[in-house]
Amino acid sequence: MLYGFVPEKVQKTSHQPTVGVLNAHAGVIASKHKTGSDRFCTLFAKFVRRFKESDCDEGYLDGNAKDVTRAYRAFLNCIKSEFTSVEAVATNNETIFFLFFSFSLWRCWQ
């Protein structure tokens, strides 16, 4: 499961704003050069929660603002400011990367 979604749902998602948010989060989490702030993680988790609560309604940007719309916009507004660059550590040790990645995901879901 990816972000609590079954793989079939993720594979069928073609809504560019949703895909963009998922990719933006994944890009920071997987990066060796960036780390997301607590706010970055919290706002992303809130978007995912609200998106799931909407039954994955991809029309959340249409019409009146909904909870998922507000969560999307809040996360989108924080993307450029709520992560920091970190110095890359010269290592090819996949275990260290896995631990960092796991911790980052854990932090975002707390």
Structural class: mainly alpha
Q: How are strands sequenced across the largest beta sheet?
A: 1-2
Based on CA atoms alone, the radius of gyration comes out at: 15 Å
Residues in helices, as a percent range: 55-70%
Q: Which residues form runs of ≥5 with pLDDT under 50?
A: 88-110
3D shape: globular
Please write the string of helix (H) and strand (E) elements: HHEHHEH
Query: Can you count the helices?
Result: 5
Distance between the termini: 17 Å
- Per DSSP E runs of 2 or more residues, the count of β-strands stands at 2
* Strand residue percentage: 5-15%
For the sheet with most strands, the description reads: 2 strands, antiparallel
Mean of all residue-level pLDDT scores: 75
Description:
It is a single chain. With 110 residues, this protein is mostly helical. Helices cover 58% and strands 5% of the residues. The chain contains 5 helices and 2 strands, in the order ααβααβα. The chain has a two-stranded antiparallel sheet with strand order 1-2. 17% of the residues are buried.
What labels describe this entry?
single chain; 110 residues; mainly alpha; two-stranded antiparallel ribbon; 58% helix; disordered C terminus
